Amino acid sequence: MKYLAIDTSSKRLIVIAKGQKTALLDLPDCAMQHSVRLMGEIDRALKEAELTLHECDFLSCVVGPGSFTGIRIGIATVKGLCAAAEKPALAVTSFDCLAYAEKSGKKLCLVDAGHGYYYACPYDGTAVAGPARYLSEAEAKALIFEGYVPISAENLAIESKLVSPAEGLLAATEALQAKAAPCAELHAEYLRKSNAEEGR
Fold first, then answer.
1. pLDDT at 198
2. First CA to last CA distance, the chain
3. What predicted TM-score, i.e. pTM, was given to this entire model?
């Protein structure tokens, strides 16, 4: 299976291309630069993988939760590329990237939502074990006390096991590829309103 996968949902920029070779680009600090750097990194990954867009079987995109602007950039880019190349799209969540990076055990996948809040989703292995939620630190800790090990891609106020979201995106895309669908079905998973919407 040949594909292109991207993650613009956090300050990182991750681009994976699997063709004759596998190219995995993980730029740890691209906050506010996704729109400037994304297409160049896609081009670099495709060249490293010896792959063209039209050779891809599908394209994959992390749909959130995470940075509202970053998610929009990623989804818009993948939809545009899918439409141009007539390819299906695969939606992968930020939680999937964490769960597939650490496949065993009961865990609580945590994404920093700012201001002491978290996007959280429990998993048992790679299976979702409950609804994704927007939680306070106290609410997240309550789930940890229930036996879920917290995992994250970055250092949080809640002590968590750190995993690689790039390796997780690669594993999740491989595992979930059968769920690729028409690109029009690709939509963001936010879990809450943006700061601008909440301030109205």
1. 53
2. 46
3. 0.95
